[in-house]
């Protein structure tokens, strides 16, 4: 069954919106130098960009897989809390289930407002013993593998495209991100419950991701990022 997004409120019109660089996957796959320059410019300035997946067959295939992953997330987070808590994160890792409020949600130390599920690449590709998981995850391992392989190919394309602008020979970045290597590569499903209008605040503390690249698919807008000209402590929330 394909994912059907729930009805969501319109994005507020009084919130500043940043115009991000838009990069074409199909043009990047063709090795177009102008598109590579756009990619490098975005990565070396804001550190974030929008990638158009709809102009490429590989991209459209990944989008279809992502729709199924959203559906998987709906089923997972719809489980009773007691069931989800059986699979709480493995100590010393971020793998497994994290309930809402279990982590810091802002710079003042308040609790977060999201739950998530995290699975490693090694688990799904059979490179390590599988972590305990609810049936809804275990019965969709083929879907998880399709997503991991598709997303990984996309990330390697981005990294290899950056080699020439960085003055590198072709190959070093892609080789150290070979899918067969043991890494911290993972996918994470998030659920942010609706907030009451009288108690609006951030749902997750400001942070820097620990991987080389984060590939984000979301339903609602609202992702915030820190411009290079600002300090983390400029954020009052």
TrEMBL record:
Query: What span is annotated as the signal peptide, if there is one?
Result: none
* Highest taxon of the lineage: Eukaryota
Q: What sequence ranges are listed for the domain Non-haem dioxygenase N-terminal? A: 15-122
Name the InterPro entries on file. DIOX_N (IPR026992), IPNS-like_sf (IPR027443), Iron_ascorbate_oxido_reductase (IPR050231)
What SUPFAM superfamilies has UniProt attached to this entry? Clavaminate synthase-like
Q: Which PANTHER family match?
A: 2-OXOGLUTARATE (2OG) AND FE(II)-DEPENDENT OXYGENASE SUPERFAMILY PROTEIN-RELATED
> According to its UniProt record, which protein family does this protein belong to?
Belongs to the iron/ascorbate-dependent oxidoreductase family.
Q: What is this protein called?
A: Non-haem dioxygenase N-terminal domain-containing protein
Organism name: Lophiotrema nucula
Q: What is the lineage of its organism?
A: Eukaryota, Fungi, Dikarya, Ascomycota, Pezizomycotina
